[in-house]
From TrEMBL:
Coiled coil recorded as keyword: yes
UniProt cross-references to InterPro entries, sorted A to Z: DUF465, DUF465_sf
Coiled coil: 2-33
Source species, domain of life: Bacteria
Sorted UniProt keywords: Coiled coil
Protein name: DUF465 domain-containing protein
Length: 68
């Protein structure tokens, strides 16, 4: 992997991690509100899981597990 590609992946990874943290805060706030929108809460949780999978995929591209 070229240095530019790795730098771009690391920048993307940081943005995805930030969005994941932001969703944590939003989910927590929504859960604490009485009468919260359950559909919106489900969408946030689904998005958070998708981000987690994508973060894992990118981390594997940056530093792959090599079985010797």
């Amino acid at each position: 992997m070229m240095a530019d590609e790795e730098r771009e992946l690391r920048a993307l990874l940081e943005r995805l991690r930030q969005e994941h943290r932001d969703l944590d805060v939003a989910i927590e706030a929504l859960q604490e509100m009485p009468g919260s929108d359950q559909l919106q809460l489900a969408r946030f949780k689904k998005r958070k899981l998708m981000l987690k999978d994508r973060i894992g995929f990118i981390e594997d591209q940056i530093c792959p597990d090599i079985i010797a």
